[in-house]
Amino acid sequence: MSNLRRSIILASRPKGAPSADNFALDESVMPKPAEGEVLTRTLWLSLDPYMRGRMSDKPSYAPPVAIGAPMTGETVGEVVESRDPRFVPGDVVTGAFGWQSHIISAGDRLTTIPKGAPYSAYLGVLGMPGATAYAGMTEIGQVKPGETVVISAASGAVGAVAGQLAKRAGARVVGVAGNPDKCLYIQDTLGFDECIDHRAVMDLDAALRDACPNGIDVYFENVGGDLQDAVYPLMNNFGRMIMCGMVAEYNDTKTRPGPNLMDVVRKRLRIEGFIVMDKPERFVDWRALAAPWVADGSLHFREHVVDGLENAPEAFIDLLRGHNFGKLVIRVAEPSKGA
Amino acid sequence: MSNLRRSIILASRPKGAPSADNFALDESVMPKPAEGEVLTRTLWLSLDPYMRGRMSDKPSYAPPVAIGAPMTGETVGEVVESRDPRFVPGDVVTGAFGWQSHIISAGDRLTTIPKGAPYSAYLGVLGMPGATAYAGMTEIGQVKPGETVVISAASGAVGAVAGQLAKRAGARVVGVAGNPDKCLYIQDTLGFDECIDHRAVMDLDAALRDACPNGIDVYFENVGGDLQDAVYPLMNNFGRMIMCGMVAEYNDTKTRPGPNLMDVVRKRLRIEGFIVMDKPERFVDWRALAAPWVADGSLHFREHVVDGLENAPEAFIDLLRGHNFGKLVIRVAEPSKGA
């Protein structure tokens, strides 16, 4: 093992879309864990749209990453050195945060993944995005059989799970995605009833109306922008808008106006935001529910794998453009033999 | 009893603010109740902002009043003739609808009011507006002690009850109203902690920030417009916006833009609309809870009484301008002796 730790740090705050200049590769001396801490070697790093918010010093639900500090991100790592009796070298864990080759964490924050499990799945379908879809659909969506559910970014890490949960609840599910391959996957593999390719249609409002002849009961919002504008007037009485993210607006330098809220009164809409980390029990509940579905193949997921920590900035920039297809993960290193 | 029934009918649909021309007084032959029906003589008529929606043929949660048909409105009436065995002449009931001197109703829709009760209160504090405040505060607001609650149209029929419920729940309550007399009443009689006179302040945003140094946890929305714009950025994490009405925009001929919804995600806001009539049990629950508070004087209410059915159009036009002070009711007729 090299005696250097590699980190991708935030070099400057982006104005609009991030560029490679906003990131830098840093090498530093390998840290040593203190009492109660664990040093992990990163195997997989998760890249997710919310990280755009951490690059900015605009108000957010979490403090921004400081200039010069490592970017934050969920990882799967292998324990190298442990000063927490619950972990021994070779254990594979999730819960360590950072775009880094090695991470020091409080042992309390780590969770062991069973040996041989699909490790990267713990960053996607069984990780934060899966738990996000689960929390939004169960706590806010509360889908009933026969309802129409629209899922934005439907081939993404959150959307793919959200839509499959809606199908399991008996809904008619319409996905929205950004290219024909994604739409094919959404319909053929994920089993959604319809998919709209928002880059291919001439008139998004009309396409959505056609796909939702009975209106929309539940909307899972990941993107905002034009799609939100098209969805809002089609919401049915007692409709729910699950406000998870608005990635299409994350690079905006000027705030767009939103929908007039009179429809919320007259249609009795519920528009509600949530952050999955607010309730850690959601992760436990979701893994207990979904791990068997992943094992038996009934819950589908797709990963977009990029090799090498040094490629994380470019991959992240592409993620915000929707160029990924499936959950974006960086393969930082291979597990050691036996892990 | 005269053999003519007087009705205020909708003569034409308003463009923007309603004017007297949009209404007409109609006289017609006194109707006779059919089997299961009851004829009432109206004592009190309730005028409420939602009726502006019924004058329009824009989409709403209820069908519009037809041109030439009587305007709709809750009343308290005295039974004149009954073909429902549950009612006898002289009974005082609520549940009949119409800007009319006499109304035919299905007996199933009527509820008897105890003799000697403050009849008009069954149109306000114990009626639809009171039940509206109760439903919004309990089902959506869920106020916790120490939270900051802002009430718009705070001296109005709904706002006055909503704010008093928030005080009972242990909140710090800030009212917003449109003149100094209303603000005095809101603080001195209703017991709110602060009141902003939105017509008197130079800078509504600053006034609201000053009145809410800890931000806003719950907003009871009756008005929309500039006040909504001022409230939205001050909402705290996990804040609730109880979307009851937006009277400041009812006369708009062009829809205003609303707030960008990214704050809903990052602050985990809940913005939810409701219509009290969707759940009739709310009326029963509220009357059971609040009738003792009205009887013991601990729940304050104020009525703005206008005499004469023929004055209802002008009073309604003034209501939309905020010229009423307290729950607006029309005294249509006196009860007969013994009722």
Automatic annotation (TrEMBL), chains A, B:
Q: Where is the signal peptide?
A: none
Keyword Oxidoreductase among record annotations: yes
The protein's GO terms of the molecular function aspect are: oxidoreductase activity, acting on the CH-CH group of donors, NAD or NADP as acceptor
KW tRNA processing (keyword) present: no
Which InterPro entries does UniProt cross-reference here?
Answer: ADH-like_C, ADH_N_2, ER, GroES-like_sf, MDR_fam, NAD(P)-bd_dom_sf
Q: Which Pfam families match?
A: ADH_N_2, ADH_zinc_N
- Sorted alphabetically, which PANTHER family does this protein's record hold? PROSTAGLANDIN REDUCTASE, PROSTAGLANDIN REDUCTASE 1
Query: By what name is this protein known?
Result: NADP-dependent oxidoreductase
Species this chain originates from? Acidisoma cellulosilyticum
